[in-house]
Amino acid sequence: MPEGPEIRRAADMLEAAVQGKPLTDVWFALPQLTDFAPGLVGQRIEQIETRGKALLTHFSGGLTLYSHNQLYGVWRVVNAGETPQTNRVLRVKLQTADKAILLYSASDIAMLTAEQLARHPFLQRLGPDVLNMTLTAAQVKERLLSARFRQRRFSGLLLDQAFLAGLGNYLRVEILWYCALAPQHNAAELDDTQLDVLAQALLDIPRLSWQTRGTVYENKHHGALFRFRVFHRAGDVCERCGGIIEKTMLSSRPFYWCPGCQC
Ligand SMILES: [Zn+2]
């Protein structure tokens, strides 16, 4: 399952192809959307925003295309006019003079006005997105300490998109290892320094993954690269304390941790 960083990277790829260019062809498979298509020709895609696993394609005329890929949906970038060979069902085509973006197989798609966007039930339930660069560690700390979340165990809290959107299982595992925290704790049990470290890691680790996961050193990123320290590494030696990394199940998902230094 892709997590926030992978969704954001996909959105970056779509933006690089079509952002800011006039749309020359717009096509929707879903009957409730077909009437919008002619009015969007000539408009531009201003931004492709990610909110957790939802993509918000903002058009210059003020409408927003909401799409959530669930398990099956996938976006592709192609040259204008190109039709890839695939068994997938095309749902959306947004084409510019040189490139087009195509959405296949997703069924959770809607066209929203600004007002509808603000009231959208799924989006309303989401917490702030860790890849939204305006979100600060101070705000995350405040959220950790709020009455709603302060007693929640990290094992479940860090998977809950209502707490922070964009986190997922590998990020949960890596963030807790980085902070040397065992998963049964909650924010109410931490001292101020631990809270500061956790709040910062909840932003820094997803953002590092977005910017560097899967890239190599010889590129523009000369700083740290994201890599797994414990995820999928059961039986390996912990690089911090020399303990042996273990695997268990927590909140119905595989969990990896080092009993030697996470307490
Ligand atoms: Zn360790």
From TrEMBL:
CDD domains per UniProt: EcNei-like_N
Annotated positions binding DNA: 70, 125, 169
Presence of the UniProt keyword Transferase in the record: no
Residue ranges of domain FPG-type in the record: 229-263
Gene3D superfamilies: 1.10.8.50, MutM-like, N-terminal
GO MF annotations in UniProt: class I DNA-(apurinic or apyrimidinic site) endonuclease activity; damaged DNA binding; oxidized pyrimidine nucleobase lesion DNA N-glycosylase activity; zinc ion binding
Record keyword Cytoplasm present: no
Cofactor info, note text: Binds 1 zinc ion per subunit.
Source taxon at top rank: Bacteria
Active site: 2 (schiff-base intermediate with dna), 3 (proton donor), 53 (proton donor), 253 (proton donor)
Cofactor(s) it depends on: Zn(2+)
Pfam families referenced in this protein's UniProt entry, alphabetically: Fapy_DNA_glyco, H2TH
GO annotation, biological process: base-excision repair
Keywords in alphabetical order: DNA damage, DNA repair, DNA-binding, Endonuclease, Glycosidase, Hydrolase, Lyase, Metal-binding, Multifunctional enzyme, Nuclease, Zinc, Zinc-finger
Role played: Involved in base excision repair of DNA damaged by oxidation or by mutagenic agents. Acts as DNA glycosylase that recognizes and removes damaged bases. Has a preference for oxidized pyrimidines, such as thymine glycol, 5,6-dihydrouracil and 5,6-dihydrothymine. Has AP (apurinic/apyrimidinic) lyase activity and introduces nicks in the DNA strand. Cleaves the DNA backbone by beta-delta elimination to generate a single-strand break at the site of the removed base with both 3'- and 5'-phosphates.
Similarity annotation: Belongs to the FPG family.
Protein name per UniProt: Endonuclease 8
Gene giving rise to this polypeptide: nei
